[in-house]
Amino acid sequence: MNAPTETAVETVGDTATLYERLGGRPGIEAIVEDIWNNHVSNPLVNKRYVNSDPANVKRLVTEMCCAGFGGPESYTGRDMIAAHKGMNINDTEFVAVCDDVLKALDKHNVGKRERDEILCILYSLKNDVVYQ
Ligand code: HEM
Questions:
Q1: Which of 130, 104, 131 is nearest to 119 (CA)?
Q2: Is the ipTM of this complex over 0.90?
Q3: Domain residue ranges of the chain, discontinuous segments joined by +
Q4: What is the mean pLDDT of residues 15-26?
Q5: Residue 68 pLDDT more than 60?
């Protein structure tokens, strides 16, 4: 059995939300900024974003991450099927977007546990995003 202090430390580590572990809204905003920069410089996907308003997409992605990772924010955008309807996004593009996210997480020194959680969340949304 753990000494009480060890238990307390482990409990804090285990119960912090992904939102808290990423540094709350400022931490997530900084990561989303780099995800956007990676998308617009990635030849596999950048043409998709030519007509987008960068500030609006970044705000919506930030809100979605904050809300989905345990923060107090509400997501005000469309659901994933509606947001990607008519784009016919393929598997290569989906992987490219995931790679852009992982690259941004690396840049911000996000740990393996958080990286794995985020990758699982992204992958769980795949069927709502591709071939819509
Ligand atoms: C799990 C993966 C993805 C997530 C979580 C995601 C998330 C989002 C969110 C939150 C929005 C804004 C929703 C709104 O406009 O109401 C959005 C829009 C968009 N996404 Fe995704 N996305 C994903 C994958 C992709 C992929 C693979 C592509 C293709 C390269 C893509 C291209 C776009 C484009 C072009 C927009 C529209 C931007 C605009 O309206 O100007 N997304 N996405």
A1: 104
A2: yes
A3: 18-129
A4: 97
A5: yes
CA of 117 to the centre of ligand 1 (A): 19
The CATH fold assigned to 18-129 is: Globin-like (1.10.490)
Centroid of ligand 1 to alpha carbon of 105 (angstroms): 18
User: Is the pLDDT at 1 greater than 50, yes or no?
Assistant: no
Q: Output the ligand 1 site: residues, CB below 6 A.
A: 45, 48-49, 52, 57, 60-61, 64, 77-78, 83-84, 89, 93-94, 97, 122, 125, 129
Among candidate residues 86, 80, 73, the one with its CA nearest the CA of residue 125: 80
CA distances from 73 to 19, 57, 70, 80, 125 (A): 10, 16, 9, 18, 20
Is 122 in contact with 74 (CB distance < 8 Å)? Answer: no
Tokens of 93: 């593009």
